[in-house]
Design brief:
With 91 residues, this protein is of the alpha+beta class. The protein contains 3 helices and 3 strands. It has a 3-stranded antiparallel β-sheet with strand order 1-2-3. A hairpin with a 5-residue loop joins strand 1 and strand 2. The longest helix is centred in the last third of the chain and has 16 residues. The chain starts with 16 loop residues before the first helix and ends with a helix.
Amino acid sequence: MTPDLDLVPTRRLGAPPARVWRAWTDPGQLKQWFVPAPWRLAEVSMDVRPGGRFDTVMAGPGGERHEAIDIHQGWGTALNQLSALLERETE
């Protein structure tokens, strides 16, 4: 990573951090919002630990399939940020 070139998007959500956490880490919830209609997330498997895999299969309305397999080194950063939010929420 190159700090002077990194893009760090931020957004405030009208939901408690625990709910946002589940939306990103629960496969059933991820299927509800992760791809735009008319496509759907047909399969998802995730290991949200640093170095964990994030595998998805998107299915299109005409039978198209797009498979993606990612290994995320950045899960740790996302997990740390969400964990910090959850801790603040319970204080």
